[in-house]
Automatic annotation (TrEMBL):
Originating species: Pseudonocardia nematodicida
Membrane-topology descriptor: Multi-pass membrane protein
Catalytic activity: 4 Fe(II)-[cytochrome c] + O2 + 8 H(+)(in) = 4 Fe(III)-[cytochrome c] + 2 H2O + 4 H(+)(out)
PANTHER family with a match to the protein in the record: CYTOCHROME C OXIDASE SUBUNIT 2 (PTHR22888:SF9), CYTOCHROME C OXIDASE, SUBUNIT II (PTHR22888)
Record's protein name: cytochrome-c oxidase
EC number annotated for this UniProt entry: 7.1.1.9
Record domain Cytochrome oxidase subunit II copper A binding: where: 136-266
Length: 316
């Protein structure tokens, strides 16, 4: 009778614990979507979604293994604990049981192999150097990271001076990379000085920018199949690259294809007001399409990256 009451007490405690665990997301104000992301941020590309799916199912698999392990552990602790009427007889032992040992070896091996296979598949998709549809990407963008700013060039689009359309960041201006939604984009990266890292949090992906990649045999290209929504996304350097590394920001501005085509066309023309080719801000302002066409960065702000700034501050 006492043993039955004890088991009922443990069963009630287990049920209360399960209810409490299930109530945590609701009490914390989390949506179902947020819960199944397991803390993974929201992405804006198919590659980001592929990584999110990998993370979600890996977390679920880990929880399943954890529940089985915890269940076996607590079952042993509860039902094989020492009791007052214990005569010292040990429960049935299973050491040196070959079938059990084979199972306990095979199952982890299968789990690791499956996780490795899915991880490799997602990694190859994220780091691919051509569009999933096959053939070249719809747009080519060159990324130059330097101490301590960025330059973005469109090698397939020539401006009025015959040189590629480009955006160069300065200490006073955050460089804006304007790209289209719903088109594949190929990025090619290089650095003239040290290692930097191209990182846009909403892409859920970062890629080191190596100096002279052709000499170092580094893969400096990757392709995203599309950006799925318009927006302004802050970008950062994610590799410690010197004094003003933390201030080396940029912005990715994703516009619908028609707006992007108009933007590129403007960059190929001369601004009648200045007599000079349209720069990034002027072209965006001329589009007159609201927030996403703001002529200055809206997701970050400029910091001075002049090499003499720190010395001037110290002297002052």
């Amino acid at each position: 009778m006492a043993r039955t009451e004890g088991r009922s007490r443990y069963a009630r405690a287990a049920k209360l614990g399960l209810v409490g665990l299930l109530a945590v997301p609701a009490l914390a104000g989390c949506s179902v979507e947020e819960v199944i992301r397991f803390g993974w941020p929201v992405g804006v590309t198919p590659e980001a979604e592929a990584m999110r799916n990998l993370w979600t199912w890996s977390a679920i698999a880990s929880l399943v293994v954890g529940v089985i392990t915890w269940g076996a552990m607590f079952w042993a602790m509860i039902f094989h604990r020492k009791r007052k009427d214990d005569d010292g007889t040990l429960p049935r032992q299973t050491q040196y049981n070959l079938p059990v040992e084979l199972v306990f070896t095979a199952i982890p091996t299968v789990i690791v192999a499956v996780l490795f296979g899915f991880t490799l598949n997602v990694q190859n998709y994220v780091t691919k150097d051509e569009a999933s549809a096959g053939g070249p990407a719809d747009l080519q963008v060159e990324i130059v990271g330097f101490q301590w700013n960025w330059e973005f060039l469109y090698p397939g689009e020539a401006g009025p001076d015959g040189r590629p359309v480009s955006t160069l960041g300065t200490s006073d201006t955050i460089p804006i990379m304007v790209v289209p939604t719903d088109r594949s984009i190929e990025f090619t990266q290089m650095s003239p000085d040290v290692i930097h890292s191209f990182y846009v949090p909403e892409f859920l992906f970062k890629r080191d920018v190596f100096p002279f990649p052709e000499r170092n045999e580094q893969d400096n290209q990757f392709v995203i199949d599309r950006i799925e929504q318009q927006g302004a996304f802050v970008g950062r350097c994610a590799e410690l690259c010197g004094t003003y590394h933390s201030q080396m920001n940029f912005e990715v501005r994703a516009l619908e294809p028609a707006l992007f085509d108009r933007y590129i066309q403007l960059r190929k023309e001369t601004n009648p007001e200045t007599g000079q080719p349209y720069n990034t801000g002027e072209a965006l302002a001329a589009l007159n399409c609201g927030e996403w066409c703001a002529p200055e960065a809206i997701s970050t702000k400029p910091f001075s990256t002049e090499r003499g700034q720190l010395a001037a501050q110290v002297d002052g």
